[in-house]
Amino acid sequence: MTQAVRHDAMRARNLALVLGEVSARGSVTRAALAEITGLAKTTVSKLVGDLIEAGLVVETGVVRAGERGRPGMEVRVSGERIAAIGLEINVDYLAAHVVDLARSVRLRRTQPVDNRMAQPGDVIANLQDLALSAVDEAVDIGLRVVGGVLAVPGTVDLATGTVRRAPNLGWRDVTPLPLPRLPFPVRVDNEANLAALGELWFGAGHRDFLHVSGEIGVGAGLIVGGEPFRGFHGFAGELGHVVVSPGGPPCRCGGQGCLERYAGQDALLAAAAGIEAGAGIAGLLARLDAGDQDALAACERAGWALGVALSSAVNLVDPGTIVLGGIYAPLFPWIGGVVTETLAARLGEMREVVPSVEVSRLGAEAATLGAAGQVIQRIIADPAGLLNA
Amino acid sequence: MTQAVRHDAMRARNLALVLGEVSARGSVTRAALAEITGLAKTTVSKLVGDLIEAGLVVETGVVRAGERGRPGMEVRVSGERIAAIGLEINVDYLAAHVVDLARSVRLRRTQPVDNRMAQPGDVIANLQDLALSAVDEAVDIGLRVVGGVLAVPGTVDLATGTVRRAPNLGWRDVTPLPLPRLPFPVRVDNEANLAALGELWFGAGHRDFLHVSGEIGVGAGLIVGGEPFRGFHGFAGELGHVVVSPGGPPCRCGGQGCLERYAGQDALLAAAAGIEAGAGIAGLLARLDAGDQDALAACERAGWALGVALSSAVNLVDPGTIVLGGIYAPLFPWIGGVVTETLAARLGEMREVVPSVEVSRLGAEAATLGAAGQVIQRIIADPAGLLNA
DNA sequence: ATATTTAGTCCATAACTTAGACTAATTCGG
DNA sequence: CCGAATTAGTCTAAGTTATGGACTAAATAT
After folding, report:
1. Are A237 and A105 within one domain?
2. What does the pLDDT look like over A234-290, one tens digit per residue?
3. Ramachandran category for residue A205: left, alpha or beta (phi over 0 → left; psi -120 to 50 → alpha)
4. For testing contact with chain A, the best of B223, B243, B311, B323 (most A CBs within 10 A)
């Protein structure tokens, strides 16, 4: 339900509007902001003043030389004070990234650990250690970390912060929150959704796309108009269990012929036979570089299956673009073509434009960046809270 | 981009908030509205006063007897003045429904015509005649029709109002607007989306569901949190071309094994062999009632395919409920079971709750009701415009 | 009949935005 | 080098809307 709007809410919205424009444009003068937002110069000045006082925005001091008349004083979002942390628990590593309010990545910490067999409690304790040391370092460079989000490869109940199922971690109904040693609130979210948000804020600049996270499972995050689409329970984007062939190999989801059985990491490696489990994607890449026929055929098959599943996704969800991330990023040279062709064959007659298939530039960092970015985004979208704190 | 909020926008939002609550609750007192919205009593009184003056709301005159104290004067949305018209062009009929601001259906006009072979211009002229006579009748009962929406079975470019492809009408890039003889603006929209909206406002009261429109093609409309999801170009919900079996029968979309080839009206009738084209669904229903084996088998197969396609849809889009409409409504007794079972088999291991599969109560009226409802909804969501007019 | 309770209105006040006057700092033209 | 023109930003009085509390209205309870 929408809320009543009083004077304070009006102010909060205009504050968010101004800060949002500053954030989107890098640096702007007050006069330009007045033009853009439609607010009166007076109002913009007052709002910018408050943002400066709160430390969210700084005058660049740089006086832009225009054509004629008094030059404007540009302001930009301050990256010097406020920051957020993105955390990730994945099958074989933990990660923490600190991002400042200006969306610069300030710290990257990754710790390889095998979390397959570990107890959730131990994993969470390790993560907390990693997060704490990252926060300490952030403090050393003058940053105040005001919030965090934790990315987990599984379905998450956003309301309670409970990880419903994370099959590759062996988790079921685990609630990692709160992380009591961290002096700020942390939320939990699904890795595929966060990776899509990472692509939105730190990637190629699309605002409408489907981001495919190839890992051991295959997930997808949909961004429409710069907003994530999550579905009713928040479990949308389970691309890995979309039907490729209804009589295909059985899947742990209970179905048969799901995409994951053709294009998930395990299926892919198994199809390319002869890659020892430990070597993982690196082993596959080596053999692809060497021109190994089995490896090429495995990618061909995975790419075809991905194309089939994505054709269903395009029909249902109509994304602007498709971005392949996770393991599909390094494999893109070998699967991108088949995916595009399969998609074109299945959609070309119905649609004027078939979404283009692109490769993610972020790789494994997408989820943590999206996680930190989400905290930043919330501040940009509603700075009123921080103003009084 | 969000807009600047000034005093008038603040007012407009609060006005919408109040009218929205009145609409949602049927009738309420000013005091209750103040409680619900969080606005001060004074403010609510002023806003309600303006709504009454504009004729959007009326005092019921009924004084509700409470426990103690002065009884409140209840207000409700007025159905006496303002109305909207929903129009539909379909393969074998034209339809027009007039709905008042209180969401009561005031007029139903349907005209059977075979539009398969007709020129778009002729069809549109016929529709305009139908609409005009409906509007005249509406005027006779004291209603002012302030807007309309036209439902078309095809993909629609909402920005331009152009029907991109409506294969079953044989339309391609037809722009039916404006309808110059109608004294109010009309927009065009996709039939499946509008049917879903019809289900939302006139159906069983769900706010999160996927509505499946079985016709000659198979479309779907997704409603999340009471809002339609349309995708990037507005072409989301093409359930008919979701993959059931990637090596299956070729489809006019260029793909193979699409749902439409298993569960579309033509495929269904063909599978039940021996139903002459003219008899349509009625013929099939007659044979099902008679226990005909071929007909039963055809429904079984269609239901299975629908279940397979819907399992992909649930994984991608995570709807709260699935509502089967169009031809699937009368066929529900014969396909509902298979759909549910197929869905459960393919999703049960992954999800705690599999969305329930229900039958639409609106049948063929869903799209026109949704079309008229959309105009009503816009007024409720932003009454400020009408207030000054 | 009187006290109590709840609904709705009235009025002075507060919060925010605005328009327009004003000051500041630059370029252009001679 | 100086004044006119131009643009940026601030200041002030005024306008719009919501609010809180006082007030009136209309019912029930005792």
Report:
1. no
2. 999 999 999 999 999 999 888 899 999 999 998 998 888 766 656 678 888 988 898
3. left
4. B243
